[in-house]
Predict the structure.
Amino acid sequence: DCNVAVGWDAGSSDLYGDSNVSVGRNAGTRSYGSASACNENVHIGRSSGDSNYSGDYQVMVGSNAKAYYNNSSYGINLGYNNRTGHSDCIAIGHNAGYSMYGQSDYHIYIGRAAGYDMDGGDYDIFIGNYCGYGGGSGGNNVALGYSNLYDLTTGSLNVAIGNQAGNEMTEGIGNVLVGHEAGEEIQTGAYNVYIGYGSAQGV
């Protein structure tokens, strides 16, 4: 009931949901589920939210903006080809979280291809173009700046602030890197603190 659909095939599969808005070709085309599923979602843009079977309270704006899981809820997607994880996630920017595979909750990705290849990490914050690109399964990371933690795979509990800080880190744990290219060449270190331009290069 009370659904709005504008565009070719928009919301065409919305069999049970209530108060959904789907605008654009194929927007929200799979928004259906049980009688209580898929409620109060906003899908704007071609194929936005077209994988949503039973998620609620999502805002997806941009061509091909969607969630990885078809029952994701409380997410915000803004930008072309971006993707959020399971629940309570934000992805803003072209290709942010786009190649995500696996359940990731409570993450924030802002910037082109930020968090691009996340595979299950939770509570990550990546802000900046290509920040946390490799993503992986690590959790509780905070990175602010261009290309920070770019190669991350299983690393967790890291803080990287400054362009390209820790961008070669793969499995590091509990590191604090502050400054342009700080800890840039560290790959697997743990519990280090490097502050300043180019600190720890060659380590």
The chain is about 0% helix and 20% strand. The radius of gyration is 18 Å.
